[in-house]
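Standup notes
- HV: blocked on the assembly model, inputs below
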Amino acid sequence: MRAEAVIDLAALRGNIRALRARTGSAAVMSVVKADAYGHGMVPCARAAVEAGSGWLGTATPEEALGLRAAGITAEQARVLCWLWTPAGPWRQAVAADIDISVSGEWALRHVLDAVRAVGRPARVHLKADTGLGRNGAQPHDWPALVAAARAAEAEGLLTVAGVWSHFACADEPGHPANASQLAGFRTALAVAEAAGLRPEVRHLANSPAALLMPEAHFDLVRAGLAQYGLSPVPEIAGPEEFGLRPVMTFQAALAQVKRVPAGHGVSYGHSYVTAGETTLALVPVGYADGVPRHASGTGPLWIGGKWRTVAGRVAMDQFVVDLGGDRAEVGDLAVLFGPGDRGEPTAEDWARATGTISYEIVTRIGARVPRRYVGGDGGTGVAEGAGG
Ligand SMILES: *Cc1c(COP(=O)(O)O)cnc(C)c1O
């Protein structure tokens, strides 16, 4: 292999079980948007269903339809999709039994047109904006949206399966927005109930709220990052303190090892120049593979049992490491990040080194990097080896 992302499905299943143990009677939705945060949507969704997630969450309709196209049925998992534009595709979503998030009356009209065209009722989750300021209906639009949905439900055109909202600051437990959003959500629920809605699931919590705010669990928590074994609150606690294990290991084989003299420039712009005679190793992944260019001169990696640092600029396809006096061979393993228990850096270490969050580190691992799945269940649906 040149480079690969090894995806430990046993760790993923273990993380979901750890989350389920924390959330008690609330169900867990496995958020698998953005190719399961770079881990591979379909294999991760299947593993999540095996671990007991009866819900899958996606941003785009294409992702939701992709889950159904892969054979994940509505009996195995409800799929909620929340980022809609007028382009839909609404009819395909209704036909595929996708739960559709509705943030305004414009979306409800599209759903009802699709229901009439397809000839089967839809399932919708009404979304309230309780303070994030992103999607969802504002409090002044909420009663009319609720009333319109209730009227359509009474006509048998749809079921309001959920009422929901999303936090802005759940990763800062003391932030005043959390209490205010929780109160706003309770108000939105009361309005919906007073109008006669009886949603199956009321849901508000993302990973940080699932881990830190039991009062926000309601009937369902939507877990993304935590199920991939990364901490959504790294300033407060690492994954192991929540019983989570990182799922992705990103590694490459050294493509060149050579001695160079002192004063040798390294990579574009010569931002790194060798201090003395030394050994340089070439790592064959770059920003096209998701290695942030901001890791130039700062990104950590693990070669031959030692931490190293990216020397000079990260290029599109490769970067260089200065091994000093240490030896290495072409083909030796360079681990950029993994669970951390062999001593290698973690995705969180990369996030710190590059001024971002671990969400972005794993999600950006590029399509050019093959995913290799390990820890499958040995024959009842998840195969070892390449996939998704
Ligand atoms: C991405 C997303 C989530 C999952 O967030 P995590 O912090 O990764 O758990 C939950 N809900 C919505 C609406 C999202 O967009």
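- HV (later): unblocked. The longest strand covers residues 158-164. Residues 248-345 form a domain with the Lyase, Ornithine Decarboxylase; Chain A, domain 1 fold (CATH 2.40.37.10).
- Next: hand off to the docking folks.
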